[in-house]
Design a protein that fits this description.
2 copies of one chain form a homodimer. The first copy, chain A, is an alpha+beta fold. Chain A has 6 helices and 6 strands, in the order ααβααββββαβα. Chain A folds into 2 domains: 95 residues, Orthogonal Bundle (Arc Repressor Mutant, subunit A); 65 residues, Dna Ligase, domain 1. Helix content of chain A is 42%, strand content 22%. In chain A, strands 1-3-2 form a 3-stranded antiparallel beta sheet. In chain A, strands 5-4-6 form a 3-stranded mixed beta sheet. In chain A, a hairpin with a 5-residue loop joins β2 and β3. In chain A, α2 packs across α3, α2 packs across α4 and α3 packs across α4. Chain B binds a DNA duplex through α4.
DNA sequence: GTGATTGCAAACTTTTTGCATCCGA
DNA sequence: TCGGATGCAAAAAGTTTGCAATCAC
């Protein structure tokens, strides 16, 4: 469940920041759509349902705040806008790392999540070899999803690449 | 050496596209700076030295073309603009895959390349498990480079995270 | 009450597009 | 010659910023 609303309020107070309706709603919307990768505009539209007077700038400012507090992750699917998703493992002592990659279909644009911890080995390897201390990573795979492959095969098109 | 200018000309002709000075120069600039990750603006400034009348739109159009021809890779360092680099392994039969990741220092912003083929195993695993056929990947590690870690240690600041 | 937060509009940045002109084949 | 390519300027799209009004504490 990552962060509860109560924990979020505590975190804000601890930082000397104010607990506002807008902030609670943005977190709530993100928590309520953890399966989706939401753009600022997406969040804006959803928060507006409960709080029509909110401004888009507030969404940007709040999301920035949530990023700094390590409560959300930021992903860029190269479709022109940055997306946010609530941390999958914000509880525990995992230092904000997310072990969850994205499979992006070149054909239909669908984004599938994929869980894997293999990268930890690679991170150790990097630290040994280069002295670079890895805190986080972002891994995207581009290709073609099963559905699109089947559709193409059905249409007689030979699978290329 | 990825693609030679002659090979590029051939590829253009094969696609029914025209060989223009602008296209040659953009490729030349990218080939001459394979150590850097260049933005469209970077390329623009450099091409202008040889060809002052070029327009920024042409850079964008050419880079798009080079991407489609799989001659350059595109990376997004989340600093507001997309960057391009000439393929490291465009020769051979590697289908455009690049086995070259980026280590991005959160402290100084430096970007270090890191070569590794470990991901092939993971790609096989994904295909088996999800049916998603991986064609390409982009992997970024965020953290702190050796230099910045040393600097912080020297200043007595304890390394956190 | 006071300073942080917000909403609005304007500004900014990067990238794309329309169109007349130009140029390679 | 002719259609693709270019340069320019305008448009588009996403995000940030300045500022007065508002709200949490």
């Amino acid at each position: 469940m990552s962060v509860s609303q109560e924990e979020f309020k505590e975190l804000l107070k601890k930082k000397g920041l104010k607990v506002t309706n807008q902030r609670l709603l943005v977190l709530e919307v993100l928590a309520g759509h953890r399966d989706r990768h939401m753009t600022a505009e997406d969040i804006y539209e959803l928060v507006k349902e409960d709080y029509p007077e909110i401004g888009l700038a507030t969404i940007y400012r709040t999301v920035q705040l949530l990023l700094e507090m390590q409560l959300v992750d930021r992903i860029n699917l190269d479709d022109g806008c940055v997306r946010y998703e609530i941390g999958q493992d914000t509880d525990g002592d995992m230092c904000g790392k997310h072990h969850h990659h994205h499979l992006i279909c070149n054909t239909c644009g669908k984004v599938l999540p994929f869980k894997d911890d293999l990268l930890e080995e690679l991170e150790r390897h990097i630290e040994e070899e280069t002295g670079f201390h890895v805190v986080n990573h972002e891994l995207k795979f581009y290709g073609q999803c099963q559905e699109c492959r089947e559709k193409e095969n059905k249409n007689g098109k030979h699978t290329e690449v």
